[in-house]
Amino acid sequence: MKDSRLLDRDFGTPAARSEKMITLTVDGFEVSVPEGTSVMRAASEAGISVPKLCATDMLDAFGSCRLCLVEIEGRAGTPASCTTPVAPGMVVHTQTGKLKDLRKGVMELYISDHPLDCLTCAANGDCELQDMAGAVGLRDVRYEAVDTHFRARNAGGDVNPQWLAKDESNPYFTYDPSKCIVCSRCVRACEEVQGTFALTIEGRGFDSRVSAGMMSDTFLSSDCVSCGACVQACPTATLQEKSVIEIGTPERAVVTTCAYCGVGCSFKAEMRGDELVRMVPYKDGKANRGHSCVKGRFAWGYAQHQDRILKPMIREAITDPWREVSWDEALGFAAARMKAIQEKHGRQSVGVITSSRCTNEETYLVQKLTRAVFRNNNTDTCARVCHSPTGYGLGQTFGTSAGTQDFDSVEDTDVVIVMGANPTDGHPVFASRLKKRLRQGAKLIVIDPRRIDLVKSPHIKAAHHLQLKPGTNVAVVSAIAHTIVTEGLFDEAFIRERCDWDEFQDYAEFISDPRHSPEETAALTGVPAEELRAAARLYARGGNGAIYYGLGVTEHSQGSTTVIGIANLAMMTGNIGRKGVGVNPLRGQNNVQGSCDMGSFPHELPGYRHVKNDHVREIFESLWGVELDKEPGLRIPNMLDAAVDGTFKGLYCQGEDILQSDPDTKHVAAGLAAMDCVIVHDLFLNETANYAHVFLPGSTFLEKDGTFTNAERRINRVRKVMAPKNGYADWEITQMLANAMGANWSYTHPSQIMAEISLTTPSFAGVSYEKLEELGSVQWPCNEKNPEGTPLMHIDGFVRGKGKFIRTEYVATDERTGPRFPLLLTTGRILSQYNVGAQTRRTANTVWHAEDLLEIHPHDAENRGLKDGDWVRLASRSGETTLRAKVTDRVSPGVVYTTFHHPDTQANVITTDFSDWATNCPEYKVTAVQISPSNGPSTWQEDYAAQAAQSRRILPAAE
């Protein structure tokens, strides 16, 4: 989908949702549109453009610019077409002599107070003011303004008090008030689309200005979250990307998909030659609907960063410096080592780790590599350490391990539970849509040990915040279920029709036990009984109820149990199978859903089918021409344990930095150090590469074709914007490694890999690149029964047949506080950084978050003599590190919180090896710790930094 600007045109006002159609006549053309449509949009639907400046279809009509005036037969005056709704039989004229004169007069007033530096303006050729001056036929300006907003001195030579300097504080865009026409589009975008309310119009009349907060505030110091909505909305060069100022106006565009979080936003990558100028949210993107966040919109500079490794490298031992070699030598070296390991230690001695950063096609090939070439099932993915309990819990209860809704569904919800997720930081575009629904009246219940922004922020406030103690998720969910069952708030008709009634009876008997009551669990969870009961009643009685959850649910020793408990809540209240309801995991990485779909787990082939299933293996055996192992392989923790034991010796790790992202860093390091061949396939020399013997340079999402699958099961195209700087896309590199190992793969394009996926995987049976080009995207299952995909799951019945209720016994974690470690550490993400920070740390996003900080409650800080900004020692039973303290009441007494974006901190040296009972998902969210004053880095940090520096030496290239 290249050169897509024409597909992304602006209709002036949002589309109406009514199903009733209205017919009217515009300039002699008859047009039918939904009731509630504006005259402006109706004209646009008929192919007639009405001049406009304050209007855009991303925002509600405002009616301030007075350019879009029309005449309507039978009505007096010249109403604004953007704020006038259509009516049956209405006859509209958009081009009359009267209208032309009025529009020219209005435009003259705008131009008289605007700098006419069009030839050197960064928006030249991309300026709506310029376009509209041409559209209304303005050729001369009769007025000469004495006082203007763009001249520093007036006619008398005195300093003009109205003149303001540019605000260059934001690293990505500039604000030039001299070019502002006070259309309010930026302010409205900040309110209506983003929901931050950071911008306002201060002053009146000639003194009117866009302001980013208080008088002393800049865009950087204000509440602005740099989502880019204001820049996108601005019709002039008032708000302009610095990249456009530096490079020039883009000349072509390619629609692709963001490679950050699981929302899966669609963007137009706007190019000048082979240079990326800017990323603009694509309005037809069904996941983001034309919105974005700071990461997807602006943080793409890592693709050109000097740290990128673009040539293959090898070394005999991890103590040696790296040596740049040809692709043939690197792949030959890697293949020879892996073959030698298997000859000496057996077929099970090597394995792979797939990436949730890479495309479905690339991930499919990596798991195929281990199964068809290495001949074992030793494949795992980062979903192991984030959402594997989702796969197990939803698979057991509903029959499929994925979210039930599309993101549009939030527009129809009445009550939302957000549990263990922080959408404004982790999934900000979805959060904006959620906040918009909350401002319209939906109620919110937040279940989180930390006071996240959704608890209270401009114009929204949670009805209930259940601030539980980390590790007590199951107890809280069970107490909610206890209230619903014992107070008779469950939907008996739904349960009898859609679920197993006998299983519900058994579950109801279990959950009705007084030990699950809010009163009995309050001391354990820290949640007041009445608050919990009120929240349970709201969810059960409040209309359409939707549950959204994140890693605060799954990354626990009882993560799978909590997911099952959440599914139980949805089933017992009938909140499944229609718009506005459901159970929705907020997936962390861009393709974590896809990496699971593609068979990256050691016990499952693509499509979540067990490797022990003979007829499933036969499908792949006949296609691949090899016999597959029917025994499940090793999970990531098992690989590391086996490496320490000396039985696992070789690893191909594509796009994952397990040394920084996985728990118990010292154990991960020991496992990697014990291997004979570690192949790292990535963009940068990451932390895991410290222990690698082969480095294969990867390609960014801008340099490849393929697909990502987001958190709503939406399969989106990724399109190559520029040639791979390393020479190859990642799927090509995996194919070359497989062929070096003796395979005979011959794919020439990712579409051929998708064809193989659709041939072997039932939920992808109807997916093809041709269909994705035609429809834009589809949500699996996409097959003969659902040829255009499935936005809502479980409408007529659950995938497994009857929904299954399962008992959820609370079992306390083995990680306990005590005199030595009296506090509980929980971890999470922040808006400006992403995961291990490999990408975002190499962009200007470091302006907002240059280091990991430890949030600590004022009570705990005072007891330890700590102040805001002090260095603190953070220690657990696993290890210790140091970082700066941030004293805040966002956390409760007894709880501390940090992020894990910076390798200098290595927060996971603190976390333990405890994990979920069903899936081995690590218990990141509950670690007993102690904090104390510190003078600087720990001994371990100093040793680690020295080892990393030693490991990253690269020999100069041979002449």
Task: Kindly list the characteristics that best describe this protein.
oxidoreductase, 2Fe-2S_ferredoxin-type, 36 strands, repeat, alpha/beta, 29 helices, 959 residues
The quaternary structure here is single chain
- Work out the helix count: 29
The neighbouring-strand order within the major sheet is: 13-12-27-26-25-14-15
Main pleated-sheet profile: 7 strands, mixed
Overall residue-averaged pLDDT value:
91
Query: How many strand elements?
Result: 36
The amount of helix comes to 25-40%
- Secondary-structure content class: alpha/beta
Question: Describe it for me?
Answer:
A hairpin with a 4-residue loop joins strand 28 (706-709) and strand 29 (714-718). The chain has 959 residues and is an alpha/beta fold. The chain is built from 29 helices and 36 strands.
Short synopsis of the structure:
With 959 residues, this protein is of the alpha/beta class. Mean pLDDT is 91; it is low at 2-6. It comes from Pannonibacter anstelovis.
How are the secondary structure elements laid out?
Blueprint: E1 21-26, E2 29-34, H1 39-45, E3 71-72, E4 91-93, H2 97-112, H3 128-135, E5 173-175, H4 185-194, E6 200-202, E7 209-211, H5 229-233, E8 239-241, H6 242-247, E9 252-257, E10 266-272, E11 275-281, H7 294-298, E12 313-314, E13 323-324, H8 327-345, E14 350-354, H9 360-373, E15 379-381, H10 388-397, E16 415-419, H11 423-426, H12 428-439, E17 443-447, E18 456-457, E19 460-461, E20 464-466, H13 473-486, H14 492-498, H15 501-511, H16 518-525, H17 529-541, E21 545-549, H18 551-554, H19 559-572, E22 582-585, H20 592-597, E23 604-605, E24 609-610, H21 614-624, H22 636-645, E25 650-654, H23 658-661, H24 665-673, E26 677-682, E27 694-697, E28 706-709, E29 714-718, H25 730-740, H26 750-760, H27 769-775, E30 777-779, E31 823-828, E32 853-856, H28 858-863, E33 871-876, E34 880-887, E35 895-899, E36 927-933, H29 939-951
Parallel strand pairs: 1-4, 14-15, 14-25, 16-17, 16-21, 17-20, 21-22, 25-26, 26-27, 31-35, 32-34
Antiparallel strand pairs: 1-2, 3-4, 5-8, 6-7, 9-10, 10-11, 12-13, 12-27, 18-19, 23-24, 28-29, 29-30, 31-36, 32-35, 33-34, 33-36
Helix pairs in contact: 8-25, 9-25, 9-26, 10-19, 13-16, 13-17, 13-19, 16-17, 22-24
